[in-house]
Amino acid sequence: MKTTINIYDFRTWFENNRPNNFSYSGLTALFEYFEEYEHSTGESIEFDPISICCEYTEYENLKGFYQDYDEEDFPTMQSIEENTQVIPFGKESFIIIQF
Length: 99
Description:
- By secondary structure, the protein is α+β, with helices and mostly antiparallel strands.
- The protein has helices at residues 7-17, 24-41, 49-55, 62-65, 77-81; strands at residues 56-59, 86-89, 93-97.
- It has one domain (7-97).
- Helix 1 (7-17) packs across helix 2 (24-41).
- The longest helix has 18 residues, at 24-41.
- It is globular, with a radius of gyration of 14 Å.
């Protein structure tokens, strides 16, 4: 049994249940990333919000990223992209798959 969710349902779930995991803009970027993945692969994704919270992390900028990862190992955005999926949005914000 499957239920299709739209961006409103996606955002609402996180805002009500895990409000500190992602910003409003981050949720939009993440939803669009999942939709594009489904479209390009033809594979449906199961909505597993707890898994999303565990696997993906949002950063406002590189400075925030360097609180979790070593700047010497990842001096540029390109070096981060070589190690994980990066979902950019806004001016400097991005979401990564944790690694």
